[in-house]
Amino acid sequence: MPRTRLRTRTGTAVLAATAVLTGLLAGAASGAAADDPAPVLVDRFEGEIPFANPPADGIFTWGSDADDQPKLELKERADAPEGSKVLEGAYDISGWGGLTHDFAFDKPAHDWTAHKGIRFWWYGQNTAPLPPGSGKRVNFELKDGGANGEASELWTTSFTDDWEGWHLVEIPFADFQYRADYQPVGGIDQVLGLNEMWGYALTLPPGAPGKFAMDGVELYGKADPALKAKVLSDAAVYPVDEGGTAQVKISVATTGSGPVDEPVTVAYTTEGGTAEPGRDYEPVSGTVTFPAGTASGTSKIVAVATTKDRTAESAETIPLRLTVTGAKPPAETPQVVVDAHGLPYLDARLPVKKRVADLLSRMSLAEKAGQMTQAERNALKSQGDIASYALGSLLSGGGSVPTPNAPEAWAKMVDAYQLRAQATRFQIPLIYGVDAVHGHNNVIGSTIMPHNIGIGATRDPAVAQKTGAVTAKEVRATGIPWDFAPCLCVTRDERWGRSYEAFGEDPALVTAMEAVIRGMQGSPSGKDLDRNDKVLTSAKHFVGDGGTEFGSSSAGSYTIDQGITKVTRQELEAVHLAPFAEAVKRGAGTVMPSYSSLDILGDAEGPVKMHANAAMINGVLKDRMGFKGFVISDWQAIDQIPGDYPSDVRTSINAGLDMIMVPTAYPDFHRTLQDEVKASRISEARIDDAVSRILTQKFALGLFEKPYADTSNLSKIGSAEHRAVAREAAAKSQVLLKNDSAVLPLKPSQKVYVAGSNADDLGNQAGGWTISWQGSSGKITTGTTVLEGMKKAAPDAALTYSKDASAPTDGHDVGVVVVGETPYAEGFGDVGNGHDLELTAADKAAVDKVCAAMKCAVLIVSGRPQLIGDRLGDIDALVASWLPGTEGDGVADVLYGKRAFTGQLPVTWPRSEAQLPVNVGDKAYDPQYPYGWGLTTLSRPPSGGEHTLRAIALAAKLLEATGRADSPEARALVSQARLMVQAKIGQHVTAASAKPFAQADHLLLGGDVTGAVASLTVAYRLA
């Protein structure tokens, strides 16, 4: 209840605030108890606490992406309840976002044990009277225990903004609940340790723009002694076979882990649930007592015995009600669950089709809707919602990680969610998904592969398959059976912020690299999916996301991502659909539509959002291509479909989507989907088809038999064996564009000068989608930078490192300047959205200084080509290093000749941004370097000119005649011809020679060996 409190300021502000309170809260208690301690001010927002990031004492914002972080300011206001300033904020949150005040890390935690609760002034934004509880909900969290505010426990409660104007919000500490969905350090003691407080946080409401103002955060009232102890159960769910006995562990824990001050009694009784007492279990009741002086952590067991009636039935629940005296009770009532048994869908000997049909026939509409719902783990209001809504799936968005962010913590986290699914009627396991797009890239210490653009540069399907296999093994070891990869986009404009997620600009190259699916899933039949080293794949983004037109995006400040792809029907089929047809053949288990819109020129329909495109999803993907898996939406993507939310739901489901990545509004989606079915706007047959597809994959993955993590491969995560695969991929991805005077490979005897922003930055060389969604610079995980790799490759070499090339350059034999981009992901990386294709001024200066002083090799570490033409004359060797991942050793391997340069350009390297888009096959084609370009240090080009080319052509014809057009011998022949042409062209690439040169690689990838040689012969003559 609101209370009158001391003021530090008199005048109009206080009078105004008092008047508002008097009007809105008439009849409320106004005086503090005589023995209450004086209020203790926490924040006045007068500037005494700065805006600062941890580990400083300060206020900072956070969010699921940059747009979701609220904008804050300390603002002078005449009506400020406390002092002269208040904290004001504006927000527009699609995922989650809020603000935190962390107390100083270098000082002791605060002690709040003397007080009853925390209160603050909140400026309500509602202009119309609302009944209590109907306004926007704001979550308020406390941080207790641990080393600091970012390594503490989280305790949460909420209030609703039901008022207009200033209102005093009082929250007793007794209202705070242990946050069950996320804990920064995985939990400490699950006791609100008021003696070790590290700060507070507010999570603001998503879904619509909003504003807020707050002031005067303070502690109030007298402490509740019961908060010093808490009763816990070691789990919320206790599955047990029929006839078995569940052992429910009840413990007592205290603030500061001292002994309990007074006796704690726990009365227990089996009550309620779906199991029948006497028939399904033996009822129990009684009391356990923890006397005064009992050590914190002491436990006692309550046994609940179930009975065997030999009847096939679904799972049944037995809640164990706990009534606690002398301590705070558990946040949830523990439940014993008698496992489902004897039903056909549980029989692993039956064909999957029969198991699916049996289970589907038993499910309610609500249960089916739950299977079609995917929520973000951080958005769960309670872990119990997994069972309440019968959720089919959870995901970790980019950066949604447990703490500590370690493989073991991931496995425990996923298992905890799976345990909740065991409390549902049919115990349908969750299918947990994650964006492991270049290794298990959210996990610190995992093996981070080159991004897809680098894998495309290898031109080696075997490497693609091996990287997929490593990724799958590491992902599955953490209990995750589903990977939102690979991206089969065909990047047609490198201004796109996702272009590095593509294998290249040529659909033939993308199709060739789809060997990665075999590495991840195994057999196209799906028979390997239940192995502990395989995961379900997701071919994305269907269809055309790499072809969006620059300037067509309407998503925030994006310029091209999520825009409109305008293509003819022929181009759609040849460029964008072809890779998905191959993915279906390879057995990809799921497909994810694109955020983008598709505008097929000439059909008069205009742009259609892909998540609403029934002609493409139902008509092409499912009907024509015969896709048998399920279609999963992208993050909150159905919200972009024109219309209201019910329209979004029915349009997407009727278009062929089977599961919706909600990801935060799962209660709304679950309810709306059922309403649409009941109103006959979505047919029950469509629902059954969707759920059947989802269940089929869950059965194939073996999740019904083994829902929990098989951790036998945890030790392989980031292992030397796995890093060797990433190292090979990084080496083979390096594309040597220029090598005058054979500057590369380096010799260990040379004195080398190393400079540039990306020479010694692990985060930069890994790129976006590394540990967090957008990635970040610095030592963000375990790995080897390019500089570190060079030191290891030539440990006795004389090497000078100067990031900005400020160190003296005299006396060096050769310079290596490693430059390029800093991390970004999706539309945040779009050119025109704060990005361009130019090197930074510092990188340009480093190149200029080093290359003027000595022979130099320049490595460009980037997700797309950078404009370098104006400096090419001063550069002796140029390498497209792409984003090689954590294994800089692989880059060093080719620099020092331990491996040969063999990579080829997966995209055309433009002369200027004005040329974009520019792609192989274009009528006008005059690049800096053509698609497929790549010098080698493996061997010298053959001599003999056209005579040799004719011999190569004849051999190619013989190979084709014998059905060996796709053989290593055929590729080697074309490679020899390519090297001859490159040697003749040198650095004088012209439009005349570039066009047939690029076309040759496209023809080779399509299996036309003789055509490839013929095209190279034309390029040779025009060079």
Automatic annotation (TrEMBL):
It catalyses: Hydrolysis of terminal, non-reducing beta-D-glucosyl residues with release of beta-D-glucose. The keyword Hydrolase applies. It is an enzyme of class 3 (hydrolase). GO terms for molecular function: hydrolase activity. Gene3D superfamilies: 2.60.40.2030, Galactose-binding lectin (2.60.120.430), Glycoside hydrolase family 3 C-terminal domain (3.40.50.1700), Glycoside hydrolase, family 3, N-terminal domain (3.20.20.300). It comes from the Bacteria. Residues 227-323 form the Calx-beta domain. Keywords: Calcium, Glycosidase, Hydrolase, Repeat, Signal. This is beta-glucosidase. PANTHER family: LYSOSOMAL BETA GLUCOSIDASE, PERIPLASMIC BETA-GLUCOSIDASE-RELATED.
